[in-house]
Structures are given as C-alpha cells and as structure tokens.
Design brief:
The structure is a homodimer of 259-residue chains.
Chain A: H1 3-27, E1 31-33, E2 39-41, H2 42-58, E3 63-66, E4 78-86, H3 88-93, E5 99-106, E6 109-117, E7 122-127, E8 131-134, E9 137-139, E10 155-157, H4 160-165, H5 169-178, E11 182-184, H6 187-195, E12 201-207, H7 209-221, E13 225-234, E14 237-245, H8 247-258
Parallel strand pairs in A: 3-4, 10-11, 10-12
Antiparallel strand pairs in A: 1-2, 4-5, 5-6, 6-7, 7-8, 8-9, 12-14, 13-14
Helix pairs in contact in A: 1-2, 6-7
C-alpha cells in the first residue's frame, strides 16, 4: 500500500464530496428523520453515496463502513470508515463547524485519514508515518513552553448529552467546573483544532468508529497523544470515549476525570 | 445622521482593520499581559489604533470608547464603542472564531453596528430601522415553525468562568444540564450566530458595552429579541448580562434561569 498516494486519493474524493455539500447549502436542503431521531439530509446521503462510489472504483477490495448505509465487507483487512457530515445538528442549523470524516483502517488501526471542514475551508489529512497537514501544510503539536500553563489551554468537549447518553455526565460537569477554558466545540471541528494545537485536548464520549478513527490518526501524526478511555456496546453499535491532543493536557484531563 | 452611509463607512473601516489582523495571523504575533491577566497582542492594538484614526477622520465630533485605549469624549451624544479583537483567547490559540466589534451609540442606544468574523470570512452589519446583513445579504430571524421544537435549537453560552466572575455559575450549570444542545460558543461568534438564527439564543454574562452593543442591534434588526438580565459595576467598569435571539427561545431561557 502506497500511503501517500492513498491519502491524496482520499483528499480528492472528499474534495469532490465537499463541492456537493456546499451546493446543497447554497440551494437550501431538506430533512428526514432517522430512526434515532437525529436528522439526515439529502446532503449527507449524496455525500456518502459519492464517497462510496469513488472508493469502490479506486479500492475494489476494501470494505466500507459508513454512517448512512449498510457496511460492505472487503478483503485483506482494509476498511474505510465514512462520516459524510459529522455535526449534522450544526449543519442543518447553519453553524459552519460541521465536516466530512474519512479514514482507512488496517486491521482496525487507522493508517490514512481526512477531516474536511467545508464550512470554513479547512482540510486536514494524515497518513501513518507521514505526518499531518492542514490545507497541505504540515501541522505539529508542540509541547507546552515554559511560560504556558495548562490552565490557559482551551479544552474542547462534546455536547453534554453525549455524556448523559452513557451515564457519564459527571465527567462533563467536572471538566466544565474544573477548567477555566472548557468549551463545547463538538464534532470534528473540536477534533481538528486538537490536531493543530488550537485546543489543548478534545474530550469526546460515546462516539462511533467513523467519528474517531480519522481524528486519532491526525492527532498522533501531528505529534499528539490519543487515549481511549472506554468502550461499550449500544445495541449493535460500538461506542468509544476518547481524549486526544497535547500530551501534557491529555494527562491533565485523565487525572481530572479520575478524581 | 445618514444611517446607511454611516453603516457603510463602519463596514469599510472594519474591513481595513481585518486586513491588518489577518496579516498579523499570517506573520505570527507577540503577546503582552494586560493588567487583568488577559492577553493583548500587537494585532489588537494596531486594529484599535486604525479604527480610532479612521473614525476621527470621518466623525470628528463623536466620542470613542475602546477596549485597549482611553475613552475620548464627543459632542452631540454620539459615541463609538470598539472591541478590536473580541475573543482574544481564541485568537491567540488559532481558533478562528474571534472577531472585530464596532457600534455607534446615540444616547447609549446602538444605531449602527458591525461584527466581522475575520477568521471565517463573515461580516455582519446593521443600522437602526434598516435591517441586518451578512456579507451584504439581508438576514432574518424567523419564528419557529410548527415542526420545530425549542429543544432542537442550539443555545450558545459564554464561558463558565464569565458566570463564575459574577457569582452566577448556577445559571450556566442549569442551562447546560437543562437543554440538550447548550454549547459554549463564546464571544462574537455566538452573537453573530444568534443574529442569523443558527443558534436559537446567545446567553452571555458579565460582558462590557463594547461586547454587547453591536450584537444587540444586529439581533433586533434581524427581527430578534434582546433582553438585558442584569448589570453591575466591576470597579469602574459596567458589566451586563444578556440573552438575545429568536423571541421564543429567549423567553424559554428567561424562564429556565429563573426556576
């Protein structure tokens, strides 16, 4: 597997999907309710269809798992995971902090990933061993300088209801009360900010594989740390609790939530 | 006073300041500590200096109050209030949700205002009686439709530490626990989203006149409601608690925080 060219193909596929998403935004769009009461739009469905079609053309042997359609099995241990529009709630309200997430797993470990924040024009990409980029420029998570304090870092959290969903709202409340700059920057926007160090860490609970795989690789390849704090089954779905970002801030979060 | 041309002059002045701010971002920038331990950058100081100079050229009789320099008195009851970079904490961390806020007060009531989100390319403007715009296009806060529920609206909050600063963290905690989509979208980003209805309401406590005046006019001229929930003196500074946005959501918030 040529990781650099696989990453570049993934970036191009997501760019094609982005054009479709922005066309839906410009035209206005319609909603349907999904079984779980979250909303799904024609933009989500079109984007996932397009990404699946392109992946099948380029990588006919790979499996595909997406948020909106049935999984297809592959051969050789390679599986793509797709969230065509992560942050659907933001998207349908016109909050520009939604995005497209795509990752390639090799035996369940991400090796290529893309997060595309179409609403604010930022595309992040990573490949195992080759580093992380934003709009093609390398990004690095440097360690905190001597004058920098963890208390000055922003810590990003998912929405409180995600923590409520797994009975762990105490974690959310403790971080909100215990850190002066804890903010809910939910979904892939917070993930991408963690990969470039604009937030010190992202703490996101009860999320699915297609909400975490791309981010974990992006953060690790930028020099950061990603720690899975928990996993559980929700019906047939596996859910994960993650913290990732600058190593010192990730450690601070681990201690803060275990106190 | 020709409100339309005054608004257009204000938009142009802010656009000139934006170019300077983005040049600082591209070049990297330096920090100094202000007396209150918040950070101020060369970008803040340069932007406020430029805006003051241009206002003095266009409106020599008007007073000017800004975040970074001493107030200058005017004649005739007109005063400009400037926050050159609202969201300094976001700005210095590379979170693109900071912005420039400018408003003209007539006897303490805002009549012209601009919020410029330089990091995401959105400029909002309003003039009393002439409506609100985003990048020149009118924006309207429509009432909730029959199928829309307040519980689906996003409610934006300032950071918890602002509420702690005036002993009202209970308000923050109650809204966070009581609404499924309460999120901290602090500073002018949350304000601007409230003016275009992407969030149902913004709840921002313990803020100064230059953090609120532009937003209040922008929301009211878009058809929304703005309610001052409290004011107090913090040393020589006056601080205000605001909720603004869609009328139904503003009312929901008022009830929720008084329970």
């Amino acid at each position: 597997m040529d990781l650099a060219s696989t990453r570049d193909i993934a970036v191009n596929i997501v760019a094609e999907a982005r054009a479709g998403i922005l066309a839906h935004v410009a035209a206005g769009f319609s909603f349907e309710k999904k079984a779980d009461r979250s909303f799904v739009t024609a933009a989500d469905l079109d984007a996932e269809r397009l990404i699946r079609r392109r992946l099948e053309e380029h990588f006919p042997d790979h499996g595909i798992v997406g948020e909106e359609f049935e999984a297809t099995a592959g051969m050789g241990g390679y599986t793509w995971v797709i969230d065509p529009i992560d942050g659907t709630h933001s998207f349908r309200h016109g909050i520009p902090l939604y995005g497209t997430m795509l990752a390639l797993l090799e035996d369940n470990r991400p090796i290529v990933s893309v997060i595309d924040l179409a609403g604010i024009g930022r595309c992040y990409a990573a490949a195992r061993g080759l580093g992380s980029t934003r709009n093609g420029q390398p990004i690095y998570l440097r360690r905190l300088g001597r004058e920098e304090r963890i208390g000055d870092e922003v810590i990003a959290l998912g929405e409180r209801k995600q923590f409520v969903g797994c009975g762990l709202e105490g974690v959310f409340d403790r971080l909100m009360a215990g850190h002066p700059h804890a903010r809910t920057y939910c979904d892939c926007f917070g993930h991408a900010l963690a990969a470039e160090g604009s937030v010190g860490a992202m703490v996101d609970y009860n999320i699915r594989i297609w909400d975490s795989a791309a981010s974990v690789l992006l953060v690790e390849e930028a020099g950061g740390k990603a720690v899975c704090l928990g996993e559980r089954l929700d019906g047939a779905d596996k859910r994960y609790d993650w913290v990732f970002g600058k190593p010192e801030v990730v450690e601070w979060v681990r201690v803060a939530i275990s106190e």
